[in-house]
Design brief:
By secondary structure, the protein is an alpha+beta fold. About 35% of the residues lie in helices and about 30% in strands. The protein has a single domain, classed as HPr-like (Histidine-containing Protein, Chain: A, 2-Layer Sandwich). It is built from 3 helices and 4 strands.
Amino acid sequence: MLRRKVFVRDVHGLRLRPAARIVNACRGIDSTVTICKGRENADCKSIWELLLLDAGSGSRLEIVTEGQEEELAMRKVMEIF
């Protein structure tokens, strides 16, 4: 299991386009990828869950990857942030 903390740098926050980029990056990866904001968690393979996080600009998030390709998954998601 890998964990990384990030801040949302986009001035518009984690909206539709960046969320779609995350979902596309996680597609086909054999790992569980979760983004946590406080006590809320979102599966990175679900655009609706990512949008429901309501992560605005400057929000502190934690990315958690677990599985066979956890390093690849973390690298792909971190490239977006």
